[in-house]
Write a structure and sequence with these properties.
Largest sheet of chain A: 5 strands, antiparallel
CATH class of one domain in chain B: Alpha Beta
Oligomer: heterodimer
Radius of gyration of chain A: 17 Å
Strand order of the largest sheet of chain B: 1-3-4-5-2
Largest sheet of chain B: 5 strands, antiparallel
Distance between the termini of chain A: 10 Å
CATH topology of chain A: Thiol Ester Dehydrase, Chain A
Strand content of chain B: 35-45%
Largest interface: A-B, 35 and 34 residues
Helix content of chain A: 10-25%
Shape of chain A: elongated
Shape of chain B: elongated
CATH class of chain A: Alpha Beta
Order of helices and strands of chain A: EHHHEEEE
Number of helices of chain B: 3
Number of domains of chain A: 1
Structural class of chain A: alpha+beta
Helix content of chain B: 10-25%
Order of helices and strands of chain B: EHHHEEEE
Strand order of the largest sheet of chain A: 1-3-4-5-2
Chain lengths: 138, 148
């Protein structure tokens, strides 16, 4: 991992990264991996019957993509907290952009830690996931 | 009407083995190319990997029936994963158990009173030490959610 403590001043932003466009296959693949088989994410007739124009993504997929983004930045073994809220739905063809910023840099329990604010936005500018995380910095 | 006496109730505990192939599958599904997940012989798992505990859970693992939520009015209020060290690593044998942690109300802007139900799934290692927690918040709205 290239990022060091000295690189992580409060206000430091990670390089934004795009994911997608997301496909129905991405939704199905995530459903198989996670065990959430809600048909609203893969069954077109079911989704339309529930009043939606088509199937939409699993909220946990875009949360998982945000997790991929942030652990690529600060290291998979270093995460100590990762939380998020779901905002807008994500649809087939959407491209997501993940961003992250250091909001706090501190020592706790003999470890160096950073708190982060994270966002996963749609190509419309709308927020799909609002997240936060804490990492230790070796 | 949510049954507040459910706070403190626990579901049936169950075993979950963190498997290397599952860690890899989950990482690929969340669009990772990180060798920490894909190439290590005993890879650490993704920060949201523990949702896949559902594959191991017996029918009595959750307490949703006891809560008496009206599922037509329930929104997913988000999740938080807490790790008391590095996230679980492939090969670990975990014991998972869910408890109802908190139930509280807030006045919503549009939908009347909203009820928040927080459940926590704890994951312990073979020594009984707490490794990770998955906190989930469900929100029962005052009125059925409408689109948009």
């Amino acid at each position: 991992m290239g990022v060091t403590w000295d690189d992580l001043a409060e206000g430091t932003k990670a390089e934004p990264r795009e994911f997608g466009p997301l496909t129905r296959t991405d939704f199905v693949r995530y459903q198989g991996a996670s065990g959430d088989f809600n048909p609203i994410h893969h069954d077109e007739e079911y989704a339309k019957g529930a009043g939606f124009p088509t199937v939409f993504s699993v909220g946990m997929l875009q949360a998982g993509i945000l997790g991929t983004y942030v652990t690529d930045w600060l290291g998979a073994a270093n995460v100590r907290n990762f939380g998020f809220q779901f905002r807008e739905q994500v649809w087939p063809g959407d491209t997501l952009t993940c961003t992250g910023e250091v909001t706090k840099r501190y020592d706790e329990d003999g470890e160096r830690r950073v708190d982060l604010e994270l966002l996963c936005t749609r190509q419309t500018g709308g927020t799909a996931i609002k997240g936060w995380a804490t990492f230790v910095v070796p | 009407m949510v049954d507040k006496s459910a706070v403190g109730e626990t579901g049936e505990a169950f075993g979950m083995t963190v498997e290397r192939g599952k860690v890899r599958e989950f990482a690929r599904a969340t669009k990772s190319e990180n060798p920490e997940y894909l190439d290590d012989a005993a890879p650490v798992s993704e920060p949201t990997f523990l949702v896949s505990s559902v594959f191991w859970a017996p029918p009595g693992a959750n307490r949703w029936g006891k809560l008496k939520l009206d599922m037509r009015r329930v929104l997913d209020g988000g999740r938080e994963f807490v790790f008391h060290g590095p996230p679980p690593v492939a090969g670990m044998k975990l014991t998972a158990q869910t408890r109802v942690d908190d139930i509280y109300e807030k006045e919503g802007k549009r939908g009347g009173t909203m009820t928040f139900v927080v459940t926590v799934q704890e994951f312990r290692d073979e020594a009984g030490d707490l490794v990770a927690e998955m906190r989930s918040t469900a929100i029962e709205t005052g009125k059925p959610p409408t689109e948009g």
